[in-house]
Amino acid sequence: MHRFTPVMPIASSSTFSSFRHRNYRLWFVGQLVSLVGTWMQNTAQGYLIYTLTGSAAYLGYVGFISGVPSMLFMLYGGVIADRMSRRTLLIITQSVMMLLAFVLAGLVFTNVVQPWHILVLAFLLGTANAFDTPARQSLVVELVEREDMTNAIAFNGTMFNAGLIVGPAIGGLVYALTGPGWCFTINGISFIAVIAALFMMRIQPVAAAPRGISALAAIRESIHYVRSERLVLTLTISTLVFSMIGFGPMTLMPAWAVTVLGGDVTTNGLLLSARGIGAVIGGLAIAALASRKLRGKMWAASSFAMPLLLLAFAFTRWLPLSLFLLGLVGLALVTIMNNSNAMVQSSVPDHLRGRVMGLYSLTFMGGGPLGALAIGVFADRTSEPLTFVVCAIITLIYASLIWFLRPEVRAMD
What we know:
Layout: H1 12-15, H2 22-53, H3 56-83, H4 86-109, H5 115-138, H6 140-143, H7 149-178, H8 181-200, H9 215-228, H10 230-247, H11 253-260, H12 265-288, H13 295-314, H14 319-347, H15 353-381, H16 384-405, H17 407-411
Helix pairs in contact: 2-3, 2-7, 2-8, 3-5, 3-9, 3-15, 4-5, 4-8, 5-15, 7-12, 7-14, 10-14, 10-15, 10-16, 11-12, 12-14, 13-14, 13-16, 15-16
């Protein structure tokens, strides 16, 4: 006689294990508020420069120039993140970002804003990000216990994309009602939340990396580590590819909303929010399944799903279906990126964490702008739909190569 054995549900305590830690709760709330403001600004800034120039190429220029500092400074930012308090570094970088948001708001309110102003401020914001990102990525080990790290990384992605849901929708409405100035002002105010959260944390910092070697030698050490670890190298290169060709087309959303769907700034906000909703669902799924050891399988499945969904989106002209497909694209992208991050962080030793995450972040923060530049120019010379088709085909070919040549990725638990 066979006895029925029920499938055990995923425990909510496991799903939300990161929130047992006070420091992580502070970080999550503060960063979530700030990210809503950041996505309001990103939405307003993209639509503002498209309004000023009428050029899809300019959307790519903004994305590219904001990423140039990542290419120049992020590896050094990783060294700094290993050599000083990451909390202190984050307080500095977040304060600089707050100031830049207020400067952009002032330019708009005084009616003097020009495209070159936006490009210069994008470069300065990218510089702050080059030092902020390695510290932010590696701070997680100081906020939770190691066994909760994958869960925390998943919720970091969920937090980022929750901001992507709310921020563009609010940003589109605020822009339509009052203009872009208040979007930038609200973003500046929102940084207060994360800065306050950082001050309130009680952190036992990890040991700083030794200073006996130069910054250049420290960077070379992290590069050697990544090159010598095949899985870490594959995931780092994959992050570059998906950042360029997966996230790159998203810079075209203002042009897509107007020229393809016949909409306006509100349509643009809805498109970005739809992607965010899918990404939040993906992040919650990763958090819930963190104990099931399915990271590699989820990564592989999403690497095929993302380009197929992108291809379907390219041929869709009905807004509700476009929103649905873009949500699924967001789900697939966040599954790839969050699992890549978790698998890399599970492999890297603590004394190299800031530098390796700086190198890893460089592929993400640098890849997106490179993709934005190429994609913006290509779309300006051809069309937005053709650009999406080409990106989907390239990504599908890459996913197939990883499947056949790097089976250890999908075998990762």
